[in-house]
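Onboarding guide, step 5: your first structure request.
Type a short instruction followed by the sequence, for example:

Predict the 3D structure of this protein.
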Amino acid sequence: MATIFRLLVLALTVIVTTVNAQDFQGVATYKTQRQVDIKIDSTKMDAGVHAQMLEMMKKQFQKTFQLTFSKEESIYKQEEELDKPQVGGSGFKMVMIGGGGGSDVLYKNTKDQRYAEQVDTYGKLFLVKDSLKTINWQLGTETKFIGEYKCFKATYTKMVPKPREILSTDKDEEIDLDTEPEMEERTVTAWYTPQIPVNNGPDNYQGLPGLILEVHDGKLTIICSKIVLNPQEKVEITQPTKGKEVNKEKYEEIMEKKAKEMMERYRPKKGDRNEGNSFSISIGG
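The system replies with C-alpha cells like these:
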C-alpha cells in the first residue's frame, strides 16, 4: 500500500511539473517560532519583571522569512524588521546560549545538491559552503489543507543533543563545558504539497516531492503564511559571495569554541551571588 501511495504522489508530481512552465518561480512567506526555556537563578526578581522578560524573549524568536524559489534554486532569508526589544538593565544580565534559528542568506541548489549560507555570527561574516544533507523522509498517507494547498505528511528521525543548562549561582559545582552533551532521538514532521512541484522548503528542509509548507522540529515551528507563484517581476536568485569561506564542519567547530568562550565569560562566579540578579537562558530542541 505504501509503495502504491508513493508511486501515486510521484506521478502527480510529474503531471503537475509538465503542466507548469519551464521558468516556474515563486515566493513563499514563512512564520517561525521557537519555544524558549528560561531559568531564573535568583528568587529576588519581581514577578512582573519576570513576566515582561518572558514576553520579550518570546518576541525575539518570532520571525518572518521569505523563500524565493525556482525549480532548482532558492534563497531563504529573514524579512527586514524593526529592532527587537532588548532584555537587560534593572540590575540583571542575560546570557543566551544557542541560536534563534534562521540565517542571513541561505542559497540552495537542489539539482547540484549544494548550498551556500552567509551567516553573521558573533560579529563576523561567514560563508558556509557544503553539500545538502540527504534526509531519509518517510512518506505518510495523512493529508490536510494549508490554505488552498492539499498537503501530505512526511517524517524522519534524527539524533540531537539535549539542551544544556548553566548552573545556578546557588550551586557550588561548576558546569564542565568540555563534556559531550547527551543525545536523544527526535522525530521531525513536515507537510508538503505536490501542487507546487519543487523538492525544496524553508531553512535546511528539502527533498520531498513538493514544496514544504510546514515543519515541526522539536521546539521549532515553521508555517507558510503566503505563496505567490510566477510573480510579475522575475525572481532573481543569486548565490551569496561575502564572508570567510568554510565548510559546515569547520563552521560548527568555530561556533562551539565561541559558545564556550561566551559561557565562560558570563557564567555567574562565586562571590557574585549578592550582586544583583542573574539568570540564564537555555535554548535547545
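Each response can be followed by summary notes, for example: Residues 248-266 form the longest helix (19 residues).
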